[in-house]
Amino acid sequence: MIVVDTNVLAYLYLQGEFSQAAERLLAYDGDWHAPILWKSEFRNILAGYLRRGRLTVTVADAIMAEAESLLEGTGHEPDSRQVLRLVRESDCSAYDCEFVAVAQMLGTVLFSMDAKILKAFPRQTKKLTEMIL
Asked: CB of 103 within 8 A of CB of 74?
């Protein structure tokens, strides 16, 4: 069981620089978790692709459905007090701290490529590209 941030999901479903790393992570541990917030963030990423003409609505719908299937039953609502404590201890947004809070709540690690999160919470996070298999 691991927690992934929304960008890791994007790397998995939208071909890019870190897509192979996301695929290796899924093969290594397919039990992915995230705060419920991931859906809104992922829809926003897909919206950007739609607006730039890089995806059709049909393809975006299919990608969203596949991501929802992957994370079905593994979305979590983090404790607000914990999120705010993490905000106070870092320079990270409350959105980012939700992912860290879920990882702490589940006693696992958050995989990310977000430099700010990785720097602020080095014991709770792992860089996607430095994953040890």
From this structure: no
Residue 5 to residues 31, 51, 77, 90, 95, Cα–Cα distance (Å): 13, 23, 14, 17, 10
Mean pLDDT of all residues belonging to the chain: 96
Which of 63, 48, 53 minimizes the C-alpha distance to 12?
Answer: 63
Listed residue (46, 49, 41, 72) closest to 61, CA to CA: 46
CA distance 111 to 133: 13
Residue 111 pairs in a beta bridge with 4, 126
Mean pLDDT over residues 77-83, rounded? 98
Looking at beta carbons, which pairs linking 115-121 to residues 24 or more positions away fall under 8 Å?
116/90, 116/91, 116/92, 117/5, 117/92, 120/89, 120/90, 120/91, 120/92, 121/86, 121/90, 121/92
